[in-house]
Amino acid sequence: MRTCLIVDDHPLFREALAATVRSAYPEARVEEAAALADALARLNQAAGRMDLLLLDLSLPGVSGFDGLAALRGRFPDLAILVVSSFDSDKVVHEALAHKANGFVSKAAGREDLCAAITRVLAGEVAMPASYAGSREAFQSADSVLAARLADLTPQQLRVLAKVRQGKLNKQIAYELGVGEQTVKAHVSEILHKLKVASRTQLVIETASATAGMLPDGGI
Predict the structure, then answer these.
(1) Fewer Cβ atoms within 10 Å of its own Cβ: the N or the C terminal residue of the chain?
(2) Which CATH number fits domain 135-213: 3.20.170.30, 3.40.50.2300, 3.30.565.10, 1.10.10.10?
(3) Residues 198-210: what's their mean pLDDT?
């Protein structure tokens, strides 16, 4: 490997990833980017000379898998290994469906990350050992998500649609004609009902939700 680009908005984690890459590939040149725009600029400058990209799904201003989709669309031959703290089978499945070359959890150890990098650079697909990967598993996961979405009120579905668009509570309140505290209460209840811990996880976990379940319009 000649060059690796690490795309993550947390400096300490970028440093840890860079150290891991250098431990496995001492001669590698490691570059870092904290945002999608910076990553795209560096890749354009590299002009096809980048060997590997380590990508966090949670980046500033990026919703769900949009960052991965943008990178894959611009650089179809680039080896992309997703490194994320959101590591459910469903998220792994969606990352691979968006044409990532592999996925490794941020909770994984150095040996697992090095093994994933080696597999991706060898042209193989790297997946967590716990990844189920079967069609039945994801049909079941989709059924669970659909049931949880069905438990949301029409108002909560409208708020969810805006959250997935990357809107802040203030923007959602303005667009839906309600108070900001009302939106905040809806978001908290959505997180509880869908059993996710953050807005970012909410967007990622519902990436494949059907548009018909997420209506627009006022409350």
Answers:
(1) C
(2) 3.40.50.2300
(3) 80
Tokens of 216: 């627009």
* CATH topology match: 3-121 vs 135-213: yes
| Contact yes or no for 159/172 (Cβ under 8 A) | yes
Give the length of the chain. 219
Task: Say whether pTM exceeds 0.85.
Answer: no
pLDDT in tens, 46-62: 888 899 999 999 999 88
Instruction: Specify burial of residue 21 (Cβ count, 10 A radius: 0-12, 13-18, 19+).
Output: buried
Domain ranges in the chain?
3-121, 135-213
User: 11-51 pLDDT, tens per residue?
Assistant: 999 999 999 999 999 999 999 999 999 999 999 998 888 99
What is the CATH architecture assignment of 3-121? 3-Layer(aba) Sandwich (3.40)
Q: Using an 8 Å Cβ cutoff, are 178 and 192 in contact?
A: no
Q: Which residues pair with 79 in a beta bridge?
A: 52
Closest by alpha carbon to 35, among 52, 55, 18, 13? 55
